[in-house]
From TrEMBL:
Entry EC no(s): 1.1.-.-
Family: Belongs to the zinc-containing alcohol dehydrogenase family.
Pfam families: ADH_N (PF08240), ADH_zinc_N (PF00107)
Keywords recorded for this protein, A-Z: Metal-binding, Oxidoreductase, Zinc
GO MF terms, alphabetically ordered: alcohol dehydrogenase (NADP+) activity; zinc ion binding
Keyword Zinc applies: yes
The name this protein goes by in its record: NAD(P)-dependent alcohol dehydrogenase
Species the sequence originates in: Rouxiella sp. WC2420
Domain Enoyl reductase (ER) per the UniProt entry, residue ranges: 14-306
Positions in coiled-coil regions: none
C-alpha cells in the first residue's frame, strides 16, 4: 500500500519550497521504512531545487543527509529492526550486477545509481523523493547503521559531506605520514580537515581568505596557506601527496599543481563542470602528477566512515534550523553564511 507523506517541495525552479503532501511507493519485502528525525542541507539540494544543473523533475523534495528511526521493516529484512537509528545518504539503489556494483562501488554503477531524490525507482519507474519529509524508505542494502553514542544531529551531514571527503582519503590510502591539503573551508572542506587529521595525516588548508586560521586549526589543520600569496605558495612547493579540492564553482587549479609531490594527486569533490582557466600540463608531466575526481562513496565505505566517526567522536559542525526556514537557509548558503552545515529538525515540518 502506498503511503501519504508530508514533505517540503520545490514545485518549480522559480518558487520557494513549501509544505507538500505526496505519495511514496508501497514498501517491498526488503524495505526499511524510516521516520525522519534530521536532514542535512547540501548545496546539491539548492541546485536541484532551482534546476541549476538541468534535469530537475518537479516536484523536487530534496534531502540526502537523512537520519531517522526505523518505523517498520519488510519480511525479508535481516539487518534492521523497528527502533534502530539509521541513515540514508545520496543513493537508494543501483543495478547491483555491473562490474562497479559487484566490486562494492555502486556509486559508479554503469546504469547509474538511483538518487535518493530526483531519481527514478528501478522497479516501478516512480520518482524518488528525499529527506525533507516525515517518512522515507529504501532497501536494507542502502540503509546505514548509526553508531551508538554519535550525535544524530551532527551526524546527518556525514552522509554526504562526510563520505564525499572520506572516500578519496581512503582510496589514496591517507594515514600517518601522509601530507594532505584541502582547498576551501565549507561543508565539505571542514569534514576533510577533520577526517584527514583523525587518520593521522599532516593537514594544510588552502584558503583565499585570511582570518580562518583559528577555525582551521580547531578543525584539524596544522598549517594554513593563503593561496593568493605567491610566497606562501612557493614555500609549499612539492609537499602534498593529496589535495582535496572542495570548491563548488569554477576556479584556477594551476597554482596548486606545483605544490604536489612526485606522483601527487589533486582530486575534485566539489566542482561539477568545466575547469577554467585551461590547465597547464607542464607540472603534470614534470612531476607525474594527476588530476582526478571522486563521487560520494559506496555503502560499505559510508558504513566504515560512520563507524570511524563513532570511534573518534567526529560529527559535522552544524546550525539547526526549522523546516520553514529552508528558503532563507538556501540564501545564506549561497553567501557561505553557515559554519558549516545546516541541519533541519524534521519535527518542525507542519502542513
Amino acid at each position: 500500500m502506498t503511503m501519504k507523506v508530508l514533505g517540503y517541495a520545490a514545485q518549480s525552479a522559480k518558487v520557494p519550497l513549501a509544505a507538500f503532501e505526496f505519495t511514496r511507493r508501497s514498501p517491498r519485502d526488503d524495505d526499511v521504512v524510516v521516520d525522519v528525525l534530521y536532514c542535512g542541507v547540501c548545496h546539491s539540494d539548492l541546485h536541484q531545487a532551482r534546476n541549476d544543473w538541468g534535469g530537475s523533475q518537479y516536484p523536487v523534495i530534496p534531502g540526502h543527509e537523512v537520519v531517522g528511526r526505523v518505523k517498520s521493516v519488510g519480511k525479508n529484512v535481516t539487518k534492521f529492526k523497528a527502533g534502530d537509528n539509521v541513515g540514508i545518504g545520496c543513493m537508494v539503489d543501483s543495478c547491483r550486477v555491473c562490474q562497479p556494483c559487484q566490486h562494492g562501488i555502486e556509486q559508479y554503477c554503469q546504469e547509474g545509481c538511483v538518487q535518493t531524490y530526483n531519481g527514478f525507482d528501478r522497479h516501478d519507474g516512480l520518482p524518488t523523493y528525499g529527506g525533507y519529509s516525515k517518512t522515507i524508505l529504501a532497501s536494507e542494502d542502502f540503509i546505514l547503521k548509526m553508531p551508538d553514542g554519535l550525535d544524530l544531529k551532527g551526524a546527518a551531514p556525514l552522509l554526504c559531506a562526510g563520505i564525499t571527503t572520506w572516500s578519496p582519503l581512503r582510496h589514496f590510502k591517507v594515514g600517518k605520514g601522509s601530507k594532505v591539503a584541502v582547498v576551501g573551508l565549507g561543508g565539505l572542506g571542514h569534514m576533510a580537515l577533520k577526517l584527514a587529521h583523525a587518520l593521522g595525516a599532516d593537514v594544510t588548508l588552502f584558503t583565499r581568505s585570511p582570518g580562518k586560521e583559528d577555525d582551521a586549526r580547531r578543525l584539524g589543520a596544522q598549517h594554513i596557506v593563503i593561496s593568493t600569496d605567491d610566497q606562501q605558495m612557493k614555500a609549499v612547493s612539492g609537499q602534498f601527496d593529496l589535495i582535496i579540492d572542495t570548491v563548488p564553482y569554477e576556479h584556477d587549479i594551476n597554482p596548486y599543481m606545483p605544490t604536489l609531490t612526485l606522483d601527487g594527486t589533486l582530486v575534485f569533490v566539489g566542482l561539477l563542470g568545466d575547469i577554467t582557466p585551461v590547465l597547464s600540463t607542464l607540472p603534470l608531466i614534470m612531476g607525474r602528477r594527476s588530476v582526478t575526481g571522486s563521487a560520494i562513496g559506496s555503502i560499505k565505505e559510508t558504513q566504515e566512515m560512520l563507524d570511524f566517526c563513532g570511534e573518534h567522536g567526529i560529527v559535522s559542525d552544524i546550525e539547526m534550523i526549522k523546516m520553514p526556514e529552508i528558503n532563507d537557509a538556501y540564501e545564506r548558503m549561497i553567501k557561505s553564511d553557515v559554519k558549516y552545515r545546516f541541519v533541519i529538525d524534521m519535527d518542525t515540518l507542519q502542513a
